[in-house]
Amino acid sequence: MRDIREFDLRELRVDPVREDLGERGAAPTLDWILTLFPRTEGEPAFDEEVIRRKVDRLRTSPEVNTGHPLLDESVRRGLASIDAAFQGNHPKYGVKQYAEEAHDGFPPTIIAAVDALSAWGMYGRAAEIFRYWLINFVKPNGWVKYRGTSIAELGQILHTAASLEERAGPTGWWEDGFAALEAIAGNLMRLRAAAGMDGLLVGSPEDDERDKRGRYFHNNLWAAKGLVRWAEVCERRNTNPWPPIGLLRALGEVIEVSTLLLIEQTWPMDEGDWWLTPQLEPCERPESLTGTRLASYTNYRYWPELLSSGMLPATMANRIVEARLSAGGQFCGMTRFEGHLDDWPLADYLYGLWALGRKDDFLLSLYGHVAYHQAEGHLTAYEQVSFPPGREVAPYCLPCQLVAARAARLLVK
C-alpha cells in the first residue's frame, strides 16, 4: 500500500497511478488498483438488509457480468439504491442534508437514474419515475422547480427523453410527459432569442454557482444537443411540437456552430496550454485545476459536460482530457476538487473518454472510482471523499452511486 504522504498534493500535476501504468506499459486492472491504497471507510447510506433484498430482486437485461465481481456488485448496488433513495416515484438526491426537500428537483438525479435503469433494461421503472418527474418538476415556462437549474441540464433532460424512447419506446411516459418536454424546448428557444450578438445563451453554469451567470460553453453545447435530440424523437413519434421540428433542428445546429467557433477563438492556439476557459467572459487564469473555485468547477463539471455532449470535435475533446491529466485534475482516475475528490459527475467524463476511444483512461477512472470513491464493504458512494485513506467529506448522493452502473454498461455486450 502506498502512503498518501509521499505525494505533495498541492504541487501534484499528473496522476501518479497513471504514470505508474505508463512505466509498466500495462493497462489498468481493478485488482491491481485495489492494491495501491487503503480503501475508503464510512457508514452505509442505507440498511444493508434493505439493499440486499433489492439487489436480489433485480432483473436486468443484459445480465450484469462485467468480468469482475466488485464491479458487478457496484452496478447492482447502484441500481438497487435508486429505489432505496427514492420515496416511491419521488426523487431524492441523497441522505442527511441531501435528503432535504430543496434537493428533490435537482435534474442530474433523474437524468442519472433514468439512464442507468434504461441502460440495463429496467424500462418500466425508468418510464415511471421519468413521467413523475416531468409532471411534478417542470414548470409551464420550461424551467425546473429547482433553485439553480443550468441550461445544460435542460438539454440533458431532452436527451434523456430521446434516449429512453430509443431504448424502451414511449410506453408509460411519453403521453403525459410530452407537454413538459415541449415546454423545455420552448424555453431554450426563448433563451436563444434573448442572446446577444455572439448568439450564446446566458445562464447559470450549475446550482452551487447559480449567481455566476454567463455564456458557458457546456451550457450552449448541451442546449444544441437537446434541441436536436428533441427534434429527432418528435420526428420518430410523428408528433408536431412547438417549436416545430425544422426550427428545433435548425436552432440546435446554429447554437452548435456558434459555440464551437467561439471556443476555437477563445481557447489558446498553443495546444500545450492547458487552461481551456469554460466561458466566453474573461476570467482569471488558475495555477492548477484546484487553484481557484472556477478551476475546480471547470475540472469536475464544466469540462466533463462539454465532453458528454458529444458535440466537440475530437481535437477539442482530447485537449480537455490532456488538460485534466497535466494540470492536477485527477488522482487514481478520480476527480480532484479543491482539497478532496468529487466524482458525482464522473459519468459525463467517462462517456467522453469512451467516445474518444481512450479505453485505458476510461478504465483507470472507473476502477479508481469503484476502489476508492466507494466505501469498502457496503460500497456507499459519498458525494465527496478525502484522499486515501478515504473518509466521507460530503454525504452519499445517488448520481455518484450510479457512476459504476452507467459506465460499466459500456463494457457489457
What does it look like?
There is one protein chain. This protein is mainly alpha-helical. Helices cover 52% and strands 4% of the residues. Helix 5 (107-119) packs antiparallel against helix 6 (123-137). The longest helix has 22 residues, at 245-266. It is globular and about 60 Å long. The two termini are 34 Å apart.
Helical residue percent?
A: 40-55%
Radius of gyration: 20 Å
The order of strands across the largest sheet is 1-2-3-4-5
How much is the average pLDDT? 98
Derived structural class: mainly alpha
| Helix and strand sequence | HHHHHHHHHHHHEEEHHEEHH
Strand content: under 5%
Largest sheet: 5 strands, antiparallel
Terminal CA distance reads 34 Å
Total of helices: 16
Q: What overall geometry do the principal axes of the alpha carbons give? A: globular
Low-confidence stretches: none
Number of strands: 5
List keywords for this structure.
single chain, 413 residues, mainly alpha, 5-stranded antiparallel β-sheet, 5 strands, globular
Structure summarized in a few sentences:
The chain is mainly alpha-helical and 413 residues long. It is built from 16 helices and five strands.
Q: How is the topology of this model organized?
A:
Blueprint: H1 16-24, H2 30-33, H3 48-57, H4 69-85, H5 107-119, H6 123-137, H7 151-168, H8 174-193, H9 217-236, H10 245-266, H11 293-308, H12 314-326, E1 330-331, E2 334-337, E3 340-342, H13 346-356, H14 359-373, E4 382-385, E5 392-396, H15 398-401, H16 403-408
Antiparallel strand pairs: 1-2, 2-3, 3-4, 4-5
